[in-house]
Amino acid sequence: MKKYSLLVLVLLLVFSISVLAGCSEKPKAVEEPKTEAPAAAPAKAGAPTEVTKWVMQPCFDSSDAGWGLGVVPWIKAVEEATEGTVKIELLPAGSITSGDEAFGAAAAGMIDVYAGWATVYGGEMPEGMLAFGMAMGADNHEEAWEAMWGNPKYKIGDIVQKAAHDRNLHWAGWTNQGPNAAFTKFPVNKLEDFAGHKMRAGGPQALFFEAMGGAPVSLPGSEIYMSIRLGTIDGTFWDTGGIDDMKFQEVIKYAIMPGWAPAQHQETFINLDAWNALTDWQREKIDGIFQSSYFETSQLHADGVQEALDILVQSGGEVITLSDSEIERMRVKSVEEVWPKVADKSEGAAKGVELWKLFLKDKGKLK
Q1: Residue 195 domain-assigned?
Q2: What's the pLDDT at 19?
Q3: Which residues of the chain have pLDDT under 70?
Q4: What CATH number has the domain bearing residue 253?
């Protein structure tokens, strides 16, 4: 009996020691399943909460056809595309700076947006001639778009955009104002008929007129009407849709079509610092209306061209449309004598002139 009692006692002692040992061990930590922290969701692109306000001053006022048919529709398109996050205050020339200085004022940041003609017409950017309209170049806005932006074989617009960026500007708008033509007191049926006459002409107009044997006269737009009436000059070069705004039908007799630049264009530039201050979304939206705005405003101008010519005829004037053979003669003379003068003004202009030549050859207009 003692033997069994001793055995039980030993077993109890061993069990007690095991229990005590187990209680003294630290429990093993239960491992949590490893999980990756969720990646932060990318910020959704969209309209910013702040509104950007710009001041726009073209180099002209509301009497110019480019105001209601070009600038105003472009502003509306920008504000709608950016969902009201970009607002533009439109002021006439002279509000902040003179019309002649407006291009430079936009580059310097005195104003945010400029509209006008960035050519040596204003003395600032010779590459702008490529966009303004080459002498006897594109016949309409469809051709102009193809050469400047639509066809990757040419993309002349890239040259103009680079020149703009080099001047602290971004080219953001474009419109074809229709033919820039001669409006005269004398008939013109062939290029020799220009010889010996004095006409108001600036920049690219003057280059063309000189090549045709004329004597260009530099005058502010406000002095053209009276200068024609007094006989100081025999006429002027002007965008056709704007002649009735200037009352030229009262002092000239003839409109010479299709014009020395059958598709004259106006450009819109934004100060590059102001442009870069926008969000990516806003810049994308504004660039996105470049083409649609171009075709919309170009059609508005086209409608205005016919209206202006009708007013001229109703006032006793006459529209002279040059023959196909005479247009070809003027084009050849322009390419041979006017275009090289454009090319001489900058490396970019020279490259663009060669691309314009290629375009006209591909269209069968040059040999």
Answers
A1: yes
A2: 38
A3: 1-44, 121-123
A4: 3.40.190.170
Give the three-class secondary structure for 13: helix
Q: What is the pLDDT of residue 122?
A: 61
Q: Is residue 45 part of a domain?
A: no
CA atoms of 199 and 242, how far apart (whole Å): 17
Residues 6+ apart with CB under 8 A from 38: none
**Given this model, what pLDDT does residue 118 score?**
87
- List CB contacts of 296: < 8 A, sequence separation 6 or more: 73, 77
* Residue 31 β-bridge partners: none
Whether 278 and 209 have beta carbons less than 8 Å apart is answered as no
pLDDT for 13: 42
Under DSSP, the state recorded for 209 is H
* Number of domains the chain is built from: 1
Residue 292 buriedness (CB in 10 A; 0-12 / 13-18 / 19+):
exposed
Q: Which two tokens stand for residue 271?
A: 């100060």
In tens, the pLDDT along 272-330 reads 999 999 999 999 999 999 999 999 999 999 999 999 999 999 999 999 999 999 999 99
Question: Which residues does 82 contact at the CB level (< 8 Å), separation at least 6?
Answer: 47, 282, 285, 286
Residue 111 in domain: yes
Q: For residue 6, what are the CA distances in angstroms to 2, 9, 19, 233?
A: 6, 5, 20, 141
